[in-house]
């Protein structure tokens, strides 16, 4: 079964909050919110990716000009279009320094099964992601203190970014 929030009756969201609300409604309509032990994690990941894509389109791309979201057995497929043809970049990081911002694109890539950036012939770009809606069958192998330290730092950064994104919306 496929669920989507596309169509001419749906205006393009203008804020990250509107985009998140659209995806939350979609996942609720598909019966995926709060289902099973991973239900809240699925919702959190989907909303975080939605928020980051929408925020990036607004801050760096000149606004959201197209929005599409659908759910299938493969996960949440989300596409956001903006008028900028510039591809997203990951800011270089130096140990011991903290730059405000720059976490969204790596988060999107980490939480999505696939990420596609399409530069459009008429101008602008469309970013399409596929966010899984179920926990992986096998947890990734994470060994050694370096991984634990990196993951703890990333968890703190994710929490900080999430609070900042919610405050901005």
What is the typical, i.e. mean, pLDDT? 77
Derived from helix and strand composition plus strand pairing, the structural class reads alpha+beta
Uncertain runs? 138-150, 164-169
Roughly how many Å apart are the termini? 32 Å
What is the CATH third-level topology name?
Heat Shock Protein 90
What CATH first level would be assigned?
Answer: Alpha Beta
Principal-axes shape call: globular
The major β-sheet equals:
5 strands, antiparallel
Read across the widest sheet, the strand sequence of neighbours is 1-2-3-5-4
Beta percentage is: 15-25%
- CATH level-4 homologous superfamily: Histidine kinase-like ATPase, C-terminal domain
Q: How many domains, as an integer?
A: 1
SSE ordering:
EHHEEHEEH
Share of helix, binned:
40-55%
The CATH architecture name reads 2-Layer Sandwich
